[in-house]
């Protein structure tokens, strides 16, 4: 066996072994790293002058080099030895050699060091596009939405309800969109969250409708072209786009069409409560339609476009023209908030020439206003804008365009009627199934579901249905059950008024309010007047049917009797397709149908019923802001109303607070008014609407999140 070769760096190896032994005594994991360095240093045949040169060896990093440099400097000072000079640096074997610290260097060493070559500037990598896996939930959704577009060169703005989309997407998904697999709570529909977060699909309206964006269309077209079922079909090309514009300007949704016969873009501005032009729909002045009670937004457009197809869909268009400072004639009108794009198309104040030039494709995209309708969701507005609908293309289905011939018919004998109980409707915590079990014992078919409104309702289900959204419809009956003690508590906390209001706005024709006696003597003694007033209000003001029962068994008997009567009385059923339903216009639609087509009752699917009666379905930004402000200590409804008269949305309030913050402290005579007094200065009110300095400070601190002492 040949003799062991002596180490070329015995001093460095000795120090490194000391570090290893010390780490082993302390039980540190770095002992293994030091051991690896000792082996590589002992096997190295090259002698080094400085520890910084050891960084290229395995197991010796910058931290170890730093410790060895300190030991070398202490060794040289203790023995009166000069500090070794490092040779010029060569290209290191590993990239981390560039980051080796030079601790304990002399000035001479710095002169000998050659600067490292400049690093190449790395270009930011573009994020990869999300491509769903074949057979997954998102994959089927994209294919289903793509196949619903009949003419992409006209528009890709095709909205589908959840039921329509599931039927179109299910053939291309290996998992079910309705039912989860065993051991998993998620369905294939959960992939919709991924698609919306990636910007491939937008969700609008209530009930929700789904539509592809431009990016989603391109990905879906690629997936469709690669699918084996479409191998013999013509390939779908991606959308033709203009070059990417500079700045924040949105890109065009499609290649401009030929000038011949192409309609001009409808250009407009949003107008805020001060009469100023703004770009965001959230900043525009809002009011309610006096006939349908839907939200409208004020806009301004050129008078030369008074005959545009869009204008026929606007509300309260001014008859007289207005002149701007440059002499341009404009008109003011209101657009339905549900159909308004988030940003306007912004025309210029230049006066148009008398002879209009032919329309030419522009290299810069202009925003297009979609044709609004009472149930039309807002146009998709992520990174793109959808094309303008031309004059020859009919507007999409809307609530005011529903015809009786569009209704789905459930023939008598082709469906069964099921009583649906709310999951929270129980006798007691210990016996949650007594109501359902008692009804089943009486021959009533019962199911338990989470109802958005009411405690019981009746559902007609097709016997030959495939489980789709429109295979179930909710009959024109709903029951709200209250035990007497629950009625008293709901009156005190405000739930009673809220529930009555939601029941009256639901569009259901037959609402039954069941009041069940519970400790009647004690309740009448303490809350007798409230109970009698509520019972009278239920019948006279709200127009509901009041049913009083003495105990739970009486209520169960009433439900069984109602079920038998409903089954005997129903024949053919008419169901409104979900694509014609919108929360903002559903009540007006039902009033029109009951007036023009009585006694036929037009029903909705169960999913549409749930979406229509969601608590937040018709909640506006103004209402959300009001609820937020009411949570602040000292803010009364009158003070909140005064603020909402000044700023209607959180965005408007935030922008105003930002402007006030920039001004800082303002001197008003001898008084200094800081930003925290913003509400006291801006909100004009008298009596209970007035906001004082102390309340203004509290509100500013709560909204602005300023922890500084506001009393300075």
UniProtKB/TrEMBL annotation:
Annotated compartments: Nucleus
Pfam families tied to this protein: ERCC4, HHH_8, WHD_MUS81
Residue ranges annotated for the ERCC4 domain, each copy included: 418-519
Region (Disordered): 78-132, 232-259, 353-402
GO cellular component annotations of the record: Holliday junction resolvase complex; nucleus
GO biological process: DNA catabolic process; double-strand break repair via break-induced replication; mitotic intra-S DNA damage checkpoint signaling; replication fork processing; resolution of meiotic recombination intermediates
Keyword match Iron-sulfur: no
Composition bias, Acidic residues: 104-114
Enzyme Commission designation: 3.1.22.-
Keyword list, A-Z: DNA damage, DNA recombination, DNA repair, Endonuclease, Hydrolase, Magnesium, Meiosis, Metal-binding, Nuclease, Nucleus
GO molecular function, one term: DNA binding
Bias kind Basic and acidic residues: ranges: 241-254
Superkingdom of origin organism: Eukaryota
Cofactor(s), by name: Mg(2+)
Entry's family note: Belongs to the XPF family.
Binding partners and assembly: Interacts with EME1.
Function: Interacts with EME1 to form a DNA structure-specific endonuclease with substrate preference for branched DNA structures with a 5'-end at the branch nick. Typical substrates include 3'-flap structures, D-loops, replication forks and nicked Holliday junctions. May be required in mitosis for the processing of stalled or collapsed replication fork intermediates. May be required in meiosis for the repair of meiosis-specific double strand breaks subsequent to single-end invasion (SEI).
Protein name: Crossover junction endonuclease MUS81
């Amino acid at each position: 066996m040949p003799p062991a070769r002596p180490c070329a760096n015995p001093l460095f190896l000795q120090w490194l072994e000391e570090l290893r032994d010390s780490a082993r005594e302390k039980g540190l994991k770095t002992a293994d790293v030091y051991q690896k360095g000792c082996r590589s240093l002992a096997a190295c045949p090259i002698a080094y002058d400085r520890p910084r040169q050891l960084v290229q060896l395995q197991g010796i990093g910058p931290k170890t080099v730093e410790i060895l440099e300190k030991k070398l400097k202490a060794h040289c000072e203790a023995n009166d030895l000069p500090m070794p000079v490092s040779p010029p640096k060569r290209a290191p074997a590993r990239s981390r050699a560039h980051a080796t610290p030079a601790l304990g260097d002399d000035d001479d060493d710095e002169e000998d060091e050659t600067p490292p070559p400049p690093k190449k500037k790395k270009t930011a990598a573009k994020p990869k596009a999300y491509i769903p896996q074949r057979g997954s939930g998102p994959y089927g959704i994209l294919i289903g939405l793509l196949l619903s577009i009949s003419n992409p060169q006209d528009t890709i703005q095709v909205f589908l309800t959840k039921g329509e989309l599931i039927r179109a997407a299910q053939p291309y998904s290996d998992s079910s969109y309705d039912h989860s697999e065993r051991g998993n709570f998620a369905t294939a529909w959960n992939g919709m969250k991924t698609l919306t977060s990636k910007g491939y699909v937008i969700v609008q309206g209530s009930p929700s409708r789904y539509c592809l964006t431009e990016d989603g269309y391109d990905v879906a077209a690629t997936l469709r072209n690669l699918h084996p079922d479409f191998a013999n079909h013509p390939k779908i090309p991606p959308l033709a786009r203009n070059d990417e514009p500079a700045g924040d300007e949105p890109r065009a949704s499609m290649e401009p069409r030929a000038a011949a016969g192409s309609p001009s873009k409808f250009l407009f501005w949003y107008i805020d409560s001060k009469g100023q032009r703004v770009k965001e729909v959230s900043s525009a002045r809002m009011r309610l339609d006096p006939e349908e009670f839907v939200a409208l937004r004020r806009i301004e457009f050129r008078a030369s476009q008074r005959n545009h197809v869009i204008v026929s869909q606007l509300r309260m268009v001014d008859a007289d023209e207005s002149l701007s400072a440059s002499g341009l004639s404009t008109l003011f009108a209101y657009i339905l908030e549900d159909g308004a794009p988030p940003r306007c198309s912004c025309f210029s104040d230049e006066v148009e020439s008398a002879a209009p030039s032919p329309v030419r494709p522009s290299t810069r995209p202009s925003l297009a206003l979609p044709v609004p309708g009472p149930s039309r969701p807002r146009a998709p507005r992520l990174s793109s804008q959808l094309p303008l609908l031309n004059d020859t293309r009919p507007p999409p289905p809307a609530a005011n365009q529903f015809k009786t011939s569009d209704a789905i018919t459930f023939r008598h004998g082709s469906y069964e009627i099921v009583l649906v109980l709310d999951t929270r409707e129980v006798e007691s915590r210990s016996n949650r199934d007594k109501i359902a079990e008692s009804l089943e014992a009486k021959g009533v078919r019962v199911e338990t579901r989470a109802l958005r409104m009411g405690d019981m309702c009746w559902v007609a289900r097709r016997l030959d249905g495939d489980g789709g959204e429109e295979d179930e419809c909710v009959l024109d009956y709903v029951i709200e059950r209250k035990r007497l003690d629950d009625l008293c508590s709901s009156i005190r906390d405000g739930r009673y008024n809220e529930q009555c209001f939601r029941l009256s706005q639901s569009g259901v024709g037959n609402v039954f309010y069941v009041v069940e006696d519970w400790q009647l003597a004690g309740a009448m003694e303490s809350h007798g007047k409230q109970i009698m007033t509520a019972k009278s209000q239920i019948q006279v003001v709200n127009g509901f049917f009041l049913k009083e029962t003495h105990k739970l068994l009486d209520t169960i008997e009433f439900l069984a009797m109602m079920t038998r009567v409903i089954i005997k009385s129903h024949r053919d059923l008419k169901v409104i397709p979900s694509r014609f339903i919108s929360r903002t216009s559903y009540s007006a639609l039902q009033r029109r149908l009951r007036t023009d087509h009585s006694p036929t009752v037009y029903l909705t699917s169960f999913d549409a019923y749930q979406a229509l009666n969601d608590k937040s379905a018709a909640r506006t930004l103004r209402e959300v802001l009001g609820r937020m402000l009411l949570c602040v200590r000292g803010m009364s409804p009158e003070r909140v109303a005064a603020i909402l008269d000044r700023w209607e949305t959180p965005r408007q309030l935030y922008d105003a607070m930002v402007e006030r913050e920039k001004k800082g402290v303002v001197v008003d005579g001898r008084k200094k008014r800081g930003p925290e007094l913003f509400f006291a200065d801006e909100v004009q009110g008298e009596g209970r609407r007035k906001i004082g300095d102390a309340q203004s400070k509290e509100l500013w601190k709560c909204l602005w999140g300023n922890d500084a002492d506001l009393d300075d």
